[in-house]
Hints:
Blueprint: E1 8-12, H1 13-16, H2 22-35, H3 43-53, E2 57-62, H4 71-82, E3 94-98, H5 101-116, E4 135-140, E5 150-154, H6 173-182, H7 215-224, H8 232-241, H9 244-254, H10 260-264, H11 270-275, E6 279-285, H12 300-309, E7 312-318, H13 329-342, E8 359-360, E9 363-364, H14 378-382
Antiparallel strand pairs: 1-2, 2-4, 3-4, 5-6, 6-7, 8-9
Helix pairs in contact: 7-8
Amino acid sequence: xxxxxxxxxxxxxxxxxxxxxxxxxxxxxxxxxxxxxxxxxxxxxxxxxxxxxxxxxxxxxxxxxxxxxxxxxxxxxxxxxxxxxxxxxxxxxxxxxxxxxxxxxxxxxxxxxxxxxxxxxxxxxxxxxxxxxxxxxxxxxxxxxxxxxxxxxxxxxxxxxxxxxxxxxxxxxxxxxxxxxxxxxxxxxxxxxxxxxxxxxxxxxxxxxxxxxxxxxxxxxxxxxxxxxxxxxxxxxxxxxxxxxxxxxxxxxxxxxxxxxxxxxxxxxxxxxxxxxxxxxxxxxxxxxxxxxxxxxxxxxxxxxxxxxxxxxxxxxxxxxxxxxxxxxxxxxxxxxxxxxxxxxxxxxxxxxxxxxxxxxxxxxxxxxxxxxxxxxxxxxxxxxx
Length: 386
């Protein structure tokens, strides 16, 4: 079982098949058929669905924590707030699924046994799956489907600037936060920030570069994010032509009440924070190795056609669950923004930074830098000058 976070755990459905009775297994298969749009399928299709069923689904279960939101409420928020902002093929599909109590009891027994045998992380000891949550979330898995599949995931973070940022900022919100967190360890960047992978000035990316009109800039960003060199041509092409991150940026712009004034006035947009803390998956299983001939899927009809042809490119968003402001989260968000402004991290005026040149798509990120870098084609070209 993979314990993805403080309030949830996920596991492949194949892992739990042995613990479920046949009626429950049949309900899961029927539910997957409904979610995938194939409610009336023949025996031949059902046989193929059984093969699909062993791989493309994961089941997410809620842990018993005081701040966890019920899955019924999560799905209501997802359907009402998230789905209208995107096309169906932009999102990792998910749906409520009734969970038998016997499954939760069995899994909790396994967790306790793992603690006894020292196979569970100490900080997770004493926390188990909720016995009061009647549902799990059934999600399509974005794991590689074969050894030849190209797969990558990243956190887009803030694709628009914080509304609180000073007008003379040299860093975007994500770059400013990365530098502030990294200041406590000047030898390496913050492990909390996926936009920085080493202390080298050429080994980080500004999330704004993910939407650059320059392919070299996008390629540099993906490389800095950790994409293997052999996958860069296909990944760059996939994201360059996909509208998914453009729609995510538009959604963030529409839900931009995430600044200091919004905190003070009590109008902070938790949907806006959800949109800034999601995951982007890129999965490519194409019969062609030529990135110029690869085509991103933008409609359900095109997606099905591409599958029938034997290859596809998928760019999808996940982890768009409602972010509850409870548990002190709202105060932590406020305090983070306050420090970014008060200590000068947006403008590069901080006193305890690492003292080396750091790039952001807004301009040079350190004292004495030139804002905007007019005439240079984004951080991809600017990196060549460092």
